[in-house]
Design brief:
Strand content: under 5%
Keywords: Signal
Protein name: Sensor of ECF-type sigma factor
Structural class: mainly alpha
Largest sheet: none
Amino acid sequence: MKNLFIALLFIVLPGLAFAQGPRMDDEKWEAKKVAWLTTKLDLTPNEAKVFWPIYNDYNKEQSTLRKERFQKMISFRKIKEIDDLSDTEIQALITNDFDFKQRDLNIEKKYYNKFKSSLSIKIVGKFYRAQEAFKKEILNQYRGGGPGKNN
């Protein structure tokens, strides 16, 4: 049972930590990310015409999935002890998280294929690298390191 609790913590804690930290509203967050991507990708006007509609659809699907996952996590946070749950309820929580991860992966694969069929693979690679760099930058700022500092 102890191992199951530890496994459940690894599944749930990242979402809870992010959900409880100070948060920018969605519009500010997205504006900052768009500015970041615009700078890092340095798209030509024609590339931008192709990239941004695909990105917007991708972002919309990801956002919908994150909201759904967050709503499911609210009920889990109300539970004080894992011991208060039946084995079936615990299994459902874990498999539900697997389902969200799989759906997220499916969205990633779907839009990777859309990006690479419409843009050069170098731009696609820059996009994925820029996304990771943006996440690191935001985490660094959240941790108090300030913009551009490494901890």
